[in-house]
Every structure is written in C-alpha cells, then in structure tokens.
Fold:
Amino acid sequence: MPNYTLSYYGEPQFDSQEEGEKHKQRFMAWVGDLGDAQVNPGTPLGEATTVSASGVLEDSGRDRLTGFSIVKADSMDAAVEIAKACPFAEFGTIDVAEVMEMRPQ
Structure:
C-alpha cells in the first residue's frame, strides 16, 4: 500500500487559546481515527527561508507550508478522502501526493 503526504498550507488564526486547543483536540481525534493508515501523524513546521538561484527570501507569506502528515492508502482517491476529513482543511489547503520511492540505478 503506497504512502501519501498531506502537506498543510496556511496559518490557522484563532480568536482565543481555547479555540486553538479545540482545533488541536479535533486534529488529534482525526489522527486517532486514522488507525493503521497513520505513518506520521503530523509534523508542524516553523517559518521557512526560501533559497533559489535568484537569492534568498526570508518571508514565505501566509500561505506557507506549515506542516505535513504521512498516511497509507490504497489509492490517491482514498488519500484524498482522508485529507478531506482533516480539520486543517477548514483553515487552509492540503496537497495530497504519493510518496515516490527513489531507487539507485
């Protein structure tokens, strides 16, 4: 069964610490519901510095990559259904991509 990354973009904004805690609890419940599909339940990411041939950009904006999870699923459609159930989708976007294995030639 292939692995899929769920890449989270955007920064949830909460009006109170309690509201943020409720979201965290909903996210953790979603992770618990993943069962055997869970590979990496979630890795939050801090502010990024973007490096390219053109130079370095310190601020990647509000739609930055803020974290990722890795799940097992039978297909891309099944992985998309997992992502649609994730509470983060209420605050930002989630990219779903199959994890490709690199093999030496």
Observations:
- Strands lie at 3-9, 38-44, 50-52, 55-57, 65-72, 93-98.
